[in-house]
Amino acid sequence: MARSLTRLILTLVIANTCATACATAELPPSAPESAPLSENALKRLDAKSDHRWIYDGLLPQLDSWSAVLSLTGHTVRVTGRLPTGWDAPLPRWAYPSPTSDGGVEVTVVYPIATARLADGWGRETGSKNATPGDYRYVSAYPFTPSDPTTGVPWGGFPFLEYDLDRHLAFHGPITAENGSWRLLRGPVSHGCARMQGEHVVEFAHMVGLDMGSPDATARGLPAPAGGYRVRVVEDFDRLPDGRRVDVDYPGAGGFSRPTGPDVFVFETWSTDDFPRFVCAHDPTRSLGDGHCDALPDPGKRPVRARDLGQIACPTDYVPMGVGTEGGVLCTNGRDAWGPFTRAMVEQCRAWGGGAGCTTDRWSLSLAQRARGEGVCPLGATLDARDTGYCVEGEDAFGPFPPAYVEVCNVAGGGRACASARWRVELLRGVMARAGRITAAGEVKP
């Protein structure tokens, strides 16, 4: 009862104090709308409903994090240290850099909306941005229900309050297009930093909220001695080397993105491409890695190509890139080396391939058509979180590097060691002994 009452009080505090600071504002007549979302996205995000959002992506919670909010650039740059011993692949929108004490710092940049200071006729709206400076404390709430009194559609997204006097925070997009949440990047808010829904969920996870659970609780996040949690700057944000910061997300009018050789444009992401990284909590599915796996996999590559598992083609075969996402086929110029996924075999049979579909050698043209354009072959998904290889059910697909094969033989793997298809359990055991070998030939113990 005490826990429920605490949540109720927190919810009422957010609803009452934020209605004036962060409520929906109309766009100026001259502000163009951003592109509509895809049909699949419309099915995933419902702007009329509140959800408890689950983070199931690749980033860990960060140590010693801080954020820089640029009012001119409409960006927030989040920087923090990876946990000690972290060696799993990072998503390609996270940029790692070594620290002087042997650690690794990672940076992620998100687009935001800021205050709409004037309307389409140049009249002041009364909205104000946060005062530039350092803010040392963040009140973090994992779930913000929409306010039936004011009509503010919070959508259930996290609320990360950094200006405690004016109740300014990072929160969900408020705006929607075609019935789907969609951030309008530009001066459109009452002062808060609006974010795309999946971005603020990932942000909340990185800074310490348990976004893997629908029962996550609010937390206070003070800065360490001498530091800050959020720094607000008026001008464009700048990296330590002086380059101005931008992010690959369109603007909705009312501001200009930086241009020129001194600009670094960070990648970003959306649930259009990676629907399994953030989803609404499904009470019929267990929590933990894979909670969002019921959603479709569009076949995009979430990690950099060099972080994929190394494919070691057999003698007389060479790796050939397939599609635009880092997929690989081993070929001698005429044939492709298998084995192939069950889904590919079924496709081959549907095309009338007959008994030849179950062999480990197909014509290159047939393998290319049946495989598809994604990072993994038809029917398989990328196990980016663990192995870096494509898996279908309990099978992982190589061919695997000689170091893995050698460890497999020593461990008594038998005939399976010579195959290009291993059980995922076998692959994980081999990798634990040999260290993780990436596509770039690097070994991560």
Task: Note the gap between the termini.
Answer: 47 Å
Tell me the overall shape. elongated
CA-atom Rg in angstroms = 24 Å
Structural class: alpha+beta
| Share of β-strand residues | 15-25%
Q: Fraction of residues in helices?
A: 10-25%
Q: Biggest sheet, strands in spatial order? A: 4-5-3-2-16-7
Major sheet details: 6 strands, mixed
Helix count, per DSSP?
7
CATH topology of the largest domain: L,D-transpeptidase catalytic domain-like
Would you count the extended β strands for me? 29
What is the residue-averaged pLDDT?
Answer: 87
CATH homologous superfamily identity of the largest domain: L,D-transpeptidase catalytic domain-like
* Total number of distinct structural domains: 2
CATH architecture identity of the largest domain:
Beta Barrel
Multimer state? single chain
